[in-house]
Amino acid sequence: MGGPDRGSGVCELWVDVECGRRPDTALHRLYGTVTYVEPDTGRVGFSPTGGHPAVALPVHRIVALSGDRQRRGVGQVPAHEPVDKR
Questions:
Q1: Which position has the higher pLDDT, 31 or 82?
Q2: Of 29, 55, 70, 75, which is most buried by a Cβ count within 10 Å?
Q3: If we measure between CA atoms, which residue out of 22, 2, 18 comes closest to residue 73?
């Protein structure tokens, strides 16, 4: 496949998640890998980078999920960051 960290088969993804109570929500971007999808419960397991504990994300709070456009590998992305409001 070529590129950073592609030999391990691990692909860093990011997921934008709506956090907090409405209407005062904020978007946060998490970097890591999807570990499971449970259609019956509406949850996605996500393992953030940097050794942080895995989390279960409610699908209805996920705003976006994509690969890292800069194709950074493990150890090159932050575990999370706020999403800029534009």
A1: 31
A2: 29
A3: 2
